[in-house]
């Protein structure tokens, strides 16, 4: 490619200046039926005395160029200059644009000389127009030469010039240079249009891997792919016979919480006819993973409406999400629909539905499914048994759980660590620690290594059975064996048990752990000790622990504040309770119904009823719905303070809002009527 000989005048005047785009004057004052009207007006203007301003001439030239009469605009410019009208930078930019469009780049560069001769300064539009002209006329090396000179001389440019050059490089099959330019460190950051231009060319030329790499870099830069990006990628991948890669791309967006981008990609796949059942399943799973089950359900119905046949994976994905959000009946409906439509559930589908039933304590229905699965000829696996064993342990029916455990072994299945953990926790829950310990021994005999969950369940069971000294010895063994070493949960279980015995023992143990075992307490650890101090009316020690926790950069949670506020109220230190309440809001810890009820009760006890009612109004304003406990506190307080009318109004308000009085409310009302609550 021949280098264009750039005018000598051009480069020396590329000084270190910041070029501002100068907007073209508005043409809104002129309306033309066609080119003849515009030319006629221009001729009338050049014959006027005095001559109109250059701005008016430039407006008309701009409109003629928009009509694409480039040669005519050049001719009229010559006439205007002959008449003595002094042009300015915008006029020259129009002239350069005209020469570029008719392929006369030499003349375009000669205009640069005129700009400098007339004492004007080229602006960013000037250079953008020249570079665009060079790109249109396939003179990319010259365009790059100007760009490089601008960079070297630190002349600022905007994203329009940058995008123009990238677009020109891509159109002239110089994709690698475009990529280098795109990824180079520049003050102007590439935008989605620039990336899309390069990605499109790469996909079109079969360089799909480079396109994907560039797309990844774009995302790292914080630029989200749009419909044009996806369209190019789908085209490139499908053309290369990589349809699986399209699905991988879809799945990647779903797994990275970019479901909206995944949906755009999926819609394009449908438009191009490149979708399949797997694509539907991937997007549906993406919706479910991001807690957008409503959209997953719509996609499922859209799929059926389009005549697509959902497969076992489709049903299982949606059923699983329904089960996790306690919508098991809807999961069961899907299960039944699946069978009606001729799709046979597999072991995974059955187990997911069983898990859903167990989560809401409907274990017998899970058991029926378990037997139904066997009747259909499906062989339960360890996971299926574990789900059911856990369900029975959760509702403290450990004998049924034990039967299932042994039934699993009889079927030739080998219980795993989870099987033992579930059973051990079940026994510990009902304080049958001896049987839990027997299971631990059985684990060792079968070369199964207990994990931290196993050990914490046993420590908890020993503590709940009152065997705290045994629990401490067990934890010491864990510490010295190191398989597994105790964690913060282990020590918190011990702290909680020691607090229930004597808070001093818990505090001593806590200090020894920090000193001897480099124990790093968490918020729960401090909550346990603060609660123990408050229960023993040792509020100052509780406050010291609270301050110590904050000093260690541990953020108090709602439980911490509720414990302390309750402790302050019980010790008649209401001002400190209110200060803590205000501190919560300052630290973005949102008070819950428990917080409000504690404060309301304290205000009622000291007969500050007006403040209590004011607090209730504030609570409602914060969208924290009062519960029956709230109303019982207020009604009791109002009656005790001799304000039965206000109490009745609150009772009526309670009824209107759908809170039907409970036994406690009725008892309070009746006692108050009889004058027994003074």
TrEMBL record:
The PPR repeats extend over 88-122, 123-157, 191-225, 276-310, 311-345, 346-380, 381-415, 416-450, 451-485, 522-556, 557-591, 592-626, 627-661
What GO molecular functions are on record for this protein? mRNA binding
Q: Which family does it belong to?
A: Belongs to the PPR family. P subfamily.
Instruction: Kindly state which keywords UniProt assigns to this record, in alphabetical order.
Output: Repeat
InterPro entries recorded: PPR_rpt, TPR-like_helical_dom_sf
Q: Name one Pfam family in it.
A: PPR
Phylogenetic placement of the source organism? Eukaryota, Viridiplantae, Streptophyta, Embryophyta, Tracheophyta
Q: What PANTHER family does the record point to? A: PENTATRICOPEPTIDE REPEAT-CONTAINING PROTEIN 4, MITOCHONDRIAL-RELATED, RESPIRATORY COMPLEX I CHAPERONE (CIA84), PUTATIVE (AFU_ORTHOLOGUE AFUA_2G06020)-RELATED
Query: What name is this protein filed under?
Result: Pentatricopeptide repeat-containing protein
